[in-house]
Description:
By secondary structure, this protein is mostly beta strands. The chain is built from one helix and ten strands. Strand 1 and strand 2 form a beta hairpin. The chain has a single domain, classed as Complement Module, domain 1, CATH 2.10.70.10. Helix content is about 10%, strand content about 45%.
Amino acid sequence: xxxxxxxxxxxxxxxxxNCQPIAADQNQREIMxxxxxxxxxxxxxxxxxxxxxxxCQKDDASGGIWATNDGEATLGGCELFQMESVETDSGIxxxxxxxxx
Length: 101
């Protein structure tokens, strides 16, 4: 990103307290927030879906809305993580590229 974009993004941020609380997901451990951003930590066997991180953006009507760089957004939930693998002559290759012999 160029410096102008970063500065514009920062100027539009507001502390997370100005946004509505994020709804819990039944498969999350917790929602972690710093001053401006929030992300979901999922239970074992689950992973965050997109968007994985949202920030609180200034909004004249409500004080703040959750957003990504693409605009208003809802924090993604926790989805079941299924390791996809393919068995080959030289072992099992997982979708992420790791290999088990």
